[in-house]
Prior knowledge:
This protein has helices at 35-47, 66-86, 97-104, 119-131, 147-150, 158-169, 198-204, 221-234, 239-242, 255-259, 265-273, 280-300, 312-320, 332-336, 343-355, 360-372, 377-391, 398-407, 429-435, 438-451, and strands at residues 7-9, 20-24, 51-56, 89-93, 108-114, 136-139. It is an alpha/beta fold. It has three domains: 1-142, Rossmann fold (3-Layer(aba) Sandwich); 143-175 and 221-300, Serine Threonine Protein Phosphatase 5, Tetratricopeptide repeat (Alpha Horseshoe); 303-451, DNA Cyclobutane Dipyrimidine Photolyase, subunit A, domain 3. A six-stranded mixed β-sheet has the order 1-6-5-2-3-4, with helices on both faces. β3 (51-56), α2 (66-86) and β4 (89-93) form a beta-alpha-beta unit. The longest helix has 21 residues, at 66-86. The chain is globular, with a radius of gyration of 22 Å. Its EC number is 4.1.99.3. One of its GO terms (biological process) is photoreactive repair.
Amino acid sequence: MIQKERIKFLNQKKEKNGDFILYWMQSSQRTEYNHALEYSIIKANSLNKPLIVFFGLEEKFPNANLRNFSFMLEGLYEVNKSLIGLGIKFVLWKKSPQIGATELSNDAIVVIVDKGYQRIERQWRNYVANNIECPLVEIETNTVVPIEEASKKEEYSAATIRPKINKILNSYLIPLELNRPIKKSLSFDIDSLDIEELDNLLKSIDVDKNVKVAPDLIGGTSEAKSHIDFFIKNKLDRYDDLRNNPNLDYLSNMSPYLHFGQISPLFLTMKILETESPGKESYLEELIVRRELSINYIYYNNAYDSFEGLPDWCKRTLEFHEKDPREYIYSIKEFENAKTHDPYWNAAQKEMVLKGKMHGYMRMYWGKKVIEWSNSPREAYKILIYLNDKYELDGRDANGYTGVAWCFGKHDRPWTERNIFGNIRYMNDKGLKRKFDPDAYAKKINEYTVSN
Ligand SMILES: Cc1cc2nc3c(=O)[nH]c(=O)nc-3n(C[C@H](O)[C@H](O)[C@H](O)COP(=O)(O)OP(=O)(O)OC[C@H]3O[C@@H](n4cnc5c(N)ncnc54)[C@H](O)[C@@H]3O)c2cc1C
């Protein structure tokens, strides 16, 4: 059974005659711990009808490039295999998802979709809800606690959302086992791209191919599961004290998998809770409270990816200091090409460009310095969103928009006033040196640059 708080009807249409139930997979690109897939199977079985799963590849998605498309397609390759095992047909089209879902709905009894929080994802769902002749049911499966249940408004900080989440968390910690569909749909005569020919498919995709495939991370649920198993076994115990050291790899690497919905945050939570590890509290704070605070921000604040979305006190203090002289000012190209005077910043930028994932601790320093070395806070904002969305495998995500906003004071408190930053928290290389050896970090990245 799927909890009712995870279910939302996006239109008032009635079920109609049709050949199948349609699950339009979009934000939850997995077959395990996927409440939307489970709801679809239960629905299909209750009507004794087959289920079709559809995914639309949008080549015009903002910042679509070889890096994020190959990671996504690796995940969908596994989705297809797993659906075949369940007797479910997977339909993959090179088409805008909302257009594809609307077209396929002509023969569907009902359409089910997973919940998405970003502007474009909500626009797609609105379009389909208004343009199909049957119900569109949205199922929330990419958060542990459904976002509107945790809070009905934009939260001020982790301190304000944490008690709200914790109060109801236990009622959502329910394992999810998939039912099997009664009726198979594999022989349905609907065209689909051949995802088994992954290399050919990738070659045919019309996206920016200058952003290369991330060398160390392969997409897909089974990859995500092997990373988390390794992390729990070898790193979770020391996560709390070592995660802020970019020279030691003590993070879980879950962010790209969470971004594409290739792994479920509920599944991760259940796995972590099974352990007796001293690191589990810190990890769940990041995975649940911080991550769901980020989603809360983009869900309730439509200007989440621009300076305008910031709290008034942040905008006011940064604007007051906008004309303060800057020791260094770099253009977007200089930042992009890692051509600043600062070897630590350049190393962080190179780590992101080359590996597709900058260490979490360096992301804070990286963001703060772009504020310090740009013409204005508005320009800095644009540069950070552009670089983060283009190069991070986990970019274009609630956490990225909120991470950038955090650099400008969002979810933080005012600090002592200073040049350029006003009351926004400042970071410098002395702070890095107190935590770890940034020269060793820069050396490691530069060696990586040379060998790749
Ligand atoms: C300027 C800036 C940009 C960022 N851009 C992104 C981004 O594009 N995508 C992204 O997923 N995260 C982003 N973050 C947040 C954080 O740095 C990453 O989530 C984390 O480094 C991902 O690596 P991991 O999964 O190995 O982390 P782990 O430490 O192993 O964390 C596990 C999970 O907890 C969550 N988490 C961890 N740290 C945070 C945090 N600070 N805020 C919210 N959730 C968190 C993530 O879902 C993460 O996958 C950004 C932070 C900053 C300051």
